[in-house]
Target: Regulator of G-protein signaling 5
Amino acid sequence: LPRFHANLPHAGAKEIKIKLGILLQKPDSAVDLVIPYNEKPERPAKTQKPSPDEALQWRDSLDKLLQNDYGLASFKSFLKSEFSEENLEFWVACEDYKKLKSPAKMAEKAKQIYEEFIQTEAPKEVNIDHFTKDITMKNLVEPSLSSFDVAQKRIHALMEKDSLPRFVRSEFYQELIK
Model:
């Protein structure tokens, strides 16, 4: 095999050859090896439906809602129903980004977040002002765990002020507090 594996720091050459071998042997099963990025089921099976009392706390606290898997899934379903899930997806991507340890993974994820949510005409462009966009772009010259903090805070504030009140009035939420 050609020596292209030198540029791939995460996987050993042997591992890559094995994976390539599998791909080359069974072209029809290649699809099974493609793992979509961060695709989680909308409502994780393990997640308990919250008590009405617990769900009632979400009216006043976006953070409590975001910390609850069921609440997060329900909020995401609601936002999808009104075609405005990009803010929540950006917020979640930033949370995932802050858990990374490896500088190489951080650089890769930072680029992905930038291309998906921040750059002009991005497929899921979030609504942030030029000042915030500029700060974020400067922060990405040398990615750190706080590179997206300003933008994430702006989006959090936007969801709190705008999306949360609409969610609380929606059927998605009303079902949970019965």
